[in-house]
Amino acid sequence: MAARVSSLRRPAAPTSRTQLAIALLMLAALAPLPTLGLEIYWQGVVITSLYYAMLATNWNLLAGYTGLFSLAPAGFAMLGAYVTALLWTYAGVSPLIGIPSGAIVCAVVGLIIGILTLRLSGPYLALTTLALAEILRVIALNSFDITRGEIGLEVPALFSHQSSYYYMFIVAVGCLLIGLHWLLGKPCGLYLRAIRNDETGARARGVRTVFWKVFAFTISSGFCGLAGALFAHYVIIVSPSIGHLLVTGLVMSMVVLGGMGTLLGPLVGALLVNVSSEYLRAAGDYQHIVFPIIVIVFARFCREGLVGRIAMMFNARAGVNAARGSRTTEVLASS
Amino acid sequence: MSDLIVVEDLTKRFGSLVAVDGVSFTIGEGELVGFLGPNGSGKTTVLNMMSGLLRPDAGRISLSGANVGGMTADRIARAGMIRMFQLTRIYPEMTVIENLLTAGFALGLDKRQATERADELLADLKILAYREAFASDLSGGQQKLLEFACCFMKAPKIALLDEPFAAIHPTMRQTLADYVRGTNAAGQAYILVSHDMPIVIDLCPRAICLAAGSVLADGPTDEVLREPAVIEAYLGPNHS
Predict the structure, then answer these.
(1) I need a labelling partner for B236 at 20 to 30 A (CA). Which of A44, A91, B13, B91 fits?
(2) What chain A residue is nearest to B156 in terms of C-alpha separation?
(3) Are A269 and A302 in contact (CB under 8 A)?
(4) What is the pLDDT of residues A281-304, one digit of tens each?
(5) A210 interaction partners in chain B (CB closer than 8 Å)
(6) ipTM metric
């Protein structure tokens, strides 16, 4: 008996080792560019892209794998940045402690928000995270005596050379992707995907859905905080603009373009959007309508994103059975 | 036969509508009970309350003597009362084997146990060839078999099956019925909601009939189906 196969819309493997390998190869390909003469300006563009890739990867863990819609990745990044900045400014705490502290504070806030909202169904998480992000930003903006408002807080640089930040972010993104791949290969990865597919069905078959949703939200919040804290010591000034809602929108568009629910998609989307936006600067204000239009086109005609679409084409060409076999073997091998 | 499930005065209201009104019954260890009643009689609502998806307004549900009335659905499933839905609830973007492993891991199996059990169930239900297929690629009947298999990754104390035989091919229906009959003979308890009377008569020694949220009849299946009140509930008061 042969299995009935629909090769038209075969999704990308969410825990694919191939995608992880491609992502690591991309990072490895980026690594020698400073020594090959990449200008300081473009090094900065890549660093910012990798910072966005961290945020996008963490948002993808929620929206792409678990089906949770958060509007606070930039808000948590800003919180992580302010934690290390405030610790440095008012207690002289080293960034080596301040940066992990930023991640931990964000994880704890994420845990609390998750416990409060993730028992509820519906749009409560989106609304709560939207409110949280805006409240944090407005507090940072208006607490001038503490945060210096829009002027921002100065923080020390971690390195004297920009290329060091470049390598730091390459390593950070690489570690994040390896960690996420490991996590998704565990039973936890199956639970998160099950929740996204059918939360009620998952609950009825014994999956502790609230626990795993809170877990995913806590992890995602913590790593957004880490990204923000690292970025703070690159830009050496922490201001409320880090947490602007537009940044969250940008991160979401990166995931949609790259491929939601794929390991590689957020990295591809972040590089594509951020690097191409540099080229679009010449278009002046028109650049602000280009990406929304592209996102709408992708949402309508290519919902799986670039990586998802390429993976589908590859799967169809490579033979569905082979793709199936390798896919499941990977899940089992890594669990 | 000791009582596995005791349901006492279970009540559920949706606004002014009393969907379930003081329902009481017991299910013994290893019993296979047909749950009958016309559409809207409250069968699925009772199952939803038993499986923790709805909170009862009043009443008590106990499983092996423990009150499970206020428990969450996942805790009830892990306690041994598992649920199959009328409208199939599988994970369409995951493969068949991933669907099964998810259920197995959630119920406490390790990787080796879960994999072996999954393959055993797929073979028993004659869908082993679809092991690596995406669940969304399966036909409606195969998806029902997959959801059914997910319920048995770890043998439950009781399985609540809501219309498992609806809209599936007769061959698959026979496969499913054979599995239910065989496991019941080995001591597996079931509540089976079905409008398919020949199957209910064939499989279920006992039936409970609900109408308008109350228990209309409870007893041997053939006697329940001969009850005038049951016939009237199904066919209306003016049937000939």
Answers:
(1) B13
(2) A205
(3) no
(4) 777 777 778 777 888 888 888 888
(5) 72
(6) 0.93
Residue given tokens 């990787």 in the structure block: B111
Residue numbers in B near A204 (CB within 8 A)? 51-53, 73-74, 77, 82-83, 85, 89
pLDDT-derived band at B1, boundaries 50, 70, 90: low
Alpha carbons within 13 A on the beta-carbon side of B77:
29
Distance between CA B192 and CA A70 in Å, rounded?
40
- A56/A302 Cα distance (integer angstroms): 18
Q: With contacts defined as CB-CB under 8 Å, which chain A residues touch B145?
A: none
Q: pLDDT tens-digit profile of A92-136? A: 999 999 999 999 999 999 999 999 988 876 788 899 999 999 999
Residues of chain A found within 8 Å of residue B72, distances taken between Cβ atoms: 203, 210
What is the residue extent of each domain of chain A? Answer: 12-243
Q: What is the mean pLDDT of residues B31-58?
A: 94
d(CA B134, CA A5): 9
Among candidates A10, A190, A324 on the partner chain, residue whose Cβ is nearest the Cβ of B101:
A190
- Which residue among B103, B111, B130 places its CB closest to the CB of A206? B103
Report the pLDDT value the prediction gives residue A230, as an integer from 0 to 100: 97
Strands of the B206-211 sheet, one edge to the other: B81-84, B158-162, B189-193, B32-36, B206-211, B214-220
